[in-house]
Amino acid sequence: MLELQNGGADATVIDLPVAQYYSTKHPDQHIKFMAYPNTKEYLGLAINKDNKDLQEQINKAIADMKADGEFNTLYKKWFNVDAPADMPVVVEFK
Fold first, then answer.
1. Beta-carbon-side half-sphere exposure of residue 50 (alpha carbons within 13 Å)
2. Residues sharing a CB contact under 8 Å with residue 70, sequence separation 6 or more, in sequence order
């Protein structure tokens, strides 16, 4: 982003959430987003795979926040757009 900001690059490729957050902090830069076709980008959360209780607590908190609109409010605050409707928001172990 710094090279772009300094005029040394015409474009940059970075994670969408990072770009969205950056755009909220630098609205004067008129950042435009281009989606990659046929891709989805999600955020990750790491917890100990043996801590099933924490997994359940996090998933319940996220479900409650989605149900009452708080999840979208926070997402919009940080990324300046509504949360994607099809974004899976659960913690699962793989």
1. 0
2. 64
